[in-house]
Amino acid sequence: xxxxxxxxxxxxxxxxxxxxxxxxxxxxxxxxxxxxxxxxxxxxxxxxxxxxxxxxxxxxxxxxxxxxxxxxxxxxxxxxxxxxxxxxxxxxxxxxxxxxxxxxxxxxxxxxxxxxxxxxxxxxxxxxxxxxxxxxxxxxxxxxxxxxxxxxxxxxxxxxxxxxxxxxxxxxxxxxxxxxxxxxxxxxxxxxxxxxxxxxxxxxxxxxxxxxxxxxxxxxxxxxxxxxxxxxxxxxxxxxxxxxxxxxxxx
Length: 251
Fold this sequence. Notes:
Blueprint: E1 7-8, E2 13-14, E3 19-20, E4 25-26, E5 30-32, E6 37-38, E7 43-46, E8 56-58, E9 63-64, E10 69-71, E11 75-76, E12 81-82, E13 87-88, E14 93-94, E15 99-100, E16 105-106, E17 111-112, E18 117-118, E19 123-124, E20 129-130, E21 135-136, E22 141-142, E23 157-158, E24 163-164, E25 169-170, E26 175-176, E27 181-182, E28 187-188, E29 196-199, E30 204-208, H1 234-241
Parallel strand pairs: 1-4, 2-5, 3-6, 4-7, 5-8, 6-9, 7-10, 8-11, 10-13, 11-14, 12-15, 13-16, 14-17, 15-18, 16-19, 17-20, 18-21, 19-22, 20-23, 21-24, 22-25, 23-26, 24-27, 25-28, 27-29
Antiparallel strand pairs: 29-30
């Protein structure tokens, strides 16, 4: 269903059961798969020469909430969900199940894995790379310029299952290892080893994540995917319960 006030290019490719809300704009180089919902006042496929001839591709079942802007040239797997006032620039490639909170700014040339959760008011710098099952909490900033202003961009790398707590600042080019935990308000200017807890400004090693326990029960807090399953597909949860961490994804 296309609202009568929406402007949808006849060159855009829309799948079945696509909904476009009031006053939204869908540009030429856009492919929306089945069951995509675009709410009011969105701009989808914003043209930019940086994208070349590459269209914006939004996978099945996406829900893009009001006042969000997606540039031409990016690609998203199925199940994308956004909050309000989200900005995503060109050449961003993301897997399935991406959740983006309100007021998130994702710059161009980013790589994002499957089932990544981003809370509100986050900025992901250009050329950042984020793995699968990563959690990024509110007000986190991933920077990318070691000598600002310059063209020498080095986005941070966040590996699978890592957790970045609120208001953390990741400096250009740092690598956050698999399953690591970055504490709230930390400034990370060095690589973080897999499975390590770091905190402070600058961030320093605290302990292994495996040493952490839940505050209200005698249960290990990490690996978090052994205890927290809400919102994840059943087949993935079953693998986690079997102790399988290397989840395989289809196309």
